[in-house]
Amino acid sequence: MTRTLITGISGQDGSYLAEALLADGHEVHGLVRQASILQRGRLDAIPACAAARADGRLKLHYADLTDSSSLQWLVRQVKPTAIYHLAGQSHVKVSFDLPEYTADTTGLGTLRLLEAVRQNVPEARFFLAATSEIFGEPAESPQSETTPVAPINPYAAAKLYALNLVRVYRRAYGLFACAGILFNHESPRRGENYVTRKIARGAARIAAGLEKELHLGTLTPRRDWGWAPDTVEGMRAILGARRADDYVLATGETHSVGDFCELAFRTVGLDYREHVVLDPEYARPVDITETRGDATKAARELGWTPRTTFAELVGRMVDAEREALDDPRPACD
Ligand code: NAP
Ligand code: F7E
């Protein structure tokens, strides 16, 4: 049994990770930040999390990635044996609007947390959620751990800094610090302003007659979209490995935003071309044309392979949105 600290526990991946760790009997501590409205919808919708909060196996603690003293205090109090660092500003387009904040949370926040770990629990295992965005417009396809990095947005630049810090702390201080180079992964718990959730929600609401149009920035970019719970299993395998290292987690398939629309709208009996409107408000100054990951190393060394197909992913997301139409609670599978 581990005493695990999760930053980003209120997010998509953090909620799946907490659910999985609690199911396996671990003690879970989550970092949450202050907001005027509690951001606990994903956790509150999971019965096991509510039960674990009641019996003390899940504890939430206020701290912030921008506040080193809170991170130091939290790590000293909890004394975790495992840390999954999933928190940060992770929206690519928003990172163009908030470049300094993105660098502060996603980049420097990782430095602050690694220092808290080094100074207080140097024997703990540390996992960083890095990203395929570090490859920028990729120099090769598919992308693996050895593909050259060349970020093209502030989010990716901050994540590359964070990934480099993990490597520095591993080498300089001998920390068990590892990273997943994560390609896009989705679920009904995805934030509503990411394209897959936006499309699934739009298709369900248009089919129900609640809306007529779905505004998107572009249909052409292609992404390697996986199922978030599969990716979370991969994170656990990376942190539990014999030695600390970095691994790509990806499906190896790529589909366009238009492909996602086509399938999502077909699921609800509609033709997306009659409802999707291109809107420059959602376009980015620069965008990656295509990502496709090569997770051979994770398969070979960790035995990890994704289990969910693209069609299953789209179907589950659209179904969850259709169910949520009659349910005032947040969409959650
Ligand atoms: P998410 O749903 O956006 O969750 C982000 C989490 O970070 C939330 O819990 C958020 O708290 C927290 N957070 C943001 N700023 C914070 C701050 N200043 N202090 C403390 N907590 C803060 O992200 P996700 O999709 O689960 O992704 C998890 C991680 O994987 C992220 O680091 C992301 O960059 C990385 N990643 C994700 C993908 C993907 O496709 N999902 C791919 C590659 C890498 P609130 O709930 O209070 O906002
Ligand atoms: O965009 C295009 C958009 O915002 C996917 C994050 O988890 O994965 C995610 O980053 C594609 C892009 O994800 C809209 O331009 C078109 O080409 O869902 P997204 P992302 O930018 O790929 C990486 C791996 C991460 O690390 C990030 O944290 O869809 N697109 N129209 C749109 N995107 C959005 N959000 N909204 C649109 O209206």
List keywords for this structure.
333 residues; alpha/beta; Rossmann fold; UDP-galactose 4-epimerase, domain 1; seven-stranded parallel beta sheet; two-stranded parallel ribbon; 43% helix; binds NADP nicotinamide-adenine-dinucleotide phosphate; binds ligand F7E
What's the β-strand tally? 13
| Average of the residue pLDDT scores | 96
- Give unreliable regions as ranges: none
Q: Any guess at the CATH architecture of the largest domain?
A: 3-Layer(aba) Sandwich
The first-level CATH class of the largest domain is given as Alpha Beta
Which range best describes the helical content: under 10%, 10-25%, 25-40%, 40-55%, 55-70% or over 70%? Answer: 40-55%
Walk across the major sheet and give the strand order.
3-2-1-4-5-6-11
CATH topology of the largest domain: Rossmann fold
Distance between the ends: 27 Å
Bin the strand percentage: 15-25%
Small molecules in complex: NADP nicotinamide-adenine-dinucleotide phosphate, ligand F7E
Alpha-beta content class: alpha/beta
Strand count, sense and closure of the main sheet? 7 strands, parallel
Write down the Rg: 19 Å
